[in-house]
Please model this.
Amino acid sequence: MADEEVVDEKKVAKKAATKKAAVKKAAVKKAAAAPETASKEAVAPKKAAPKKAAAAKADSTVKRLSVTLVRSKHHRLAAHRACAAGLGLRRMHQTVQVIDTPENRGMINKIHYMLNVEEV
Model:
């Protein structure tokens, strides 16, 4: 009984594969017959790229924080290393300026013992 079901499933899969191949061959034949319309039919339409959020402008109204890594990232929790990387800190005594947002404040608060923070 189970052997018959397996054989039937294989036959169904084989039929589906041959149908797909036939459709592709038909598209190729159409492309050869009419080259000006082939590019429109054979190629699937491209999806529009998602719009990117506008980058924060360097206005004087935007509060910034100057963050310096003063303790090593080695032998720290993975989440703490990830917070340092999220702030853009790669090595000791490196200083970066980040925008004062709740997300950045949360990362700074999590690894406060490793940082020196100054308002700019």
Q: What stands out?
A: The CA atoms of residues 63 and 100 lie 5 Å apart.
